[in-house]
Amino acid sequence: xxxxxxxxxxxxxxxxxxxxxxxxxxxxxxxxxxxxxxxxxxxxxxxxxxxxxxxxxxxxxxxxxxxxxxxxxxxxxxxxxxxxxxxxxxxxxxxxxxxxxxxxxxxxxxxxxxxxxxxxxx
Length: 122
Prior knowledge:
Shape: globular
Low-confidence stretches: 1-5, 12-21
CATH topology: Arc Repressor Mutant, subunit A
Strand content: under 5%
Helix content: 40-55%
Strand order of the largest sheet: 1-2
């Protein structure tokens, strides 16, 4: 049996081949690194880049997260900016969803980003 891949869309056949371009490979490395963030912890885009073997590529992490399929199980909400805040537009549905998901895990993003990072950083 093929193991369930966290970055496939719900209902996508696990035996279906994935793209093998360099971009897809980097995206997969980033997604798998994000999957390793434990519940109740957060990481910055830069943290993820470093752990994925892409030092200095924080923006590349953001690009990969934007490509996630709808309904993904990758815990994208655990990735925040270097200030410990959401990078999504303030008051947007995405920011609200990120805050709710983090709150469900016990992580409260407030106005004190650095304090949030000190407490919850992976």
